[in-house]
Amino acid sequence: MSNRIARNISIILRSERLIAQRHMAVFRRQGGMVAAALIAAGVGLVMFNVAGFFALSEAMSPASAALIVALVNMALAIVLLVGASKATVGEEVNAVSEVRDMALEDLEAEVRSAADEAKAATDALKNMAKNPLGAITPSLASAIAKALVKTSKK
What we know:
Residues 104-131 form a coiled coil. The protein is an all-alpha fold.
C-alpha cells in the first residue's frame, strides 16, 4: 500500500513539474514575441516621426517612403502581438493532467482504504475491551481447546 502511495505522489509531482515547464515555455515564447512587437512598434514610431518631418519639410517623395516603412513596421508589430496571444499550452498538458488526476484519485482511494482499515481496527479493539470472550475467534478457541486436550491427556 505504501508503495502505491509513494508512486502516486511521485507521479503527481512529475506531472505538476511537466505542466509548469510547459507553461513556462509558452510564457517565454509569448514574452519573446511581445518584445519583438515592442521593438517593431518603437521602430515604427521613430519612422512615423521621420515621415512626419519629411512630409512637412519636403513635398512627398522621401516622406512617403518613410511612411510606408513605418506602416510595415506597425503591421509587423500587430502580427507578432496576435501570434503571441494565440500561443497556448495546448494538448501536451492535457495528457499529463489526466495522468496526474488518475494518480490523485488512486491516492485518495488508498487513503480512504487506510482510514477504513484503521477504523475497523479501532472498532475491533473497542469490541474486545467490551467483550473479551466474544472477541475470541473460533480458530483461536479451537487452538486453545486442542492445547487443553493435549495437556489433560499428559
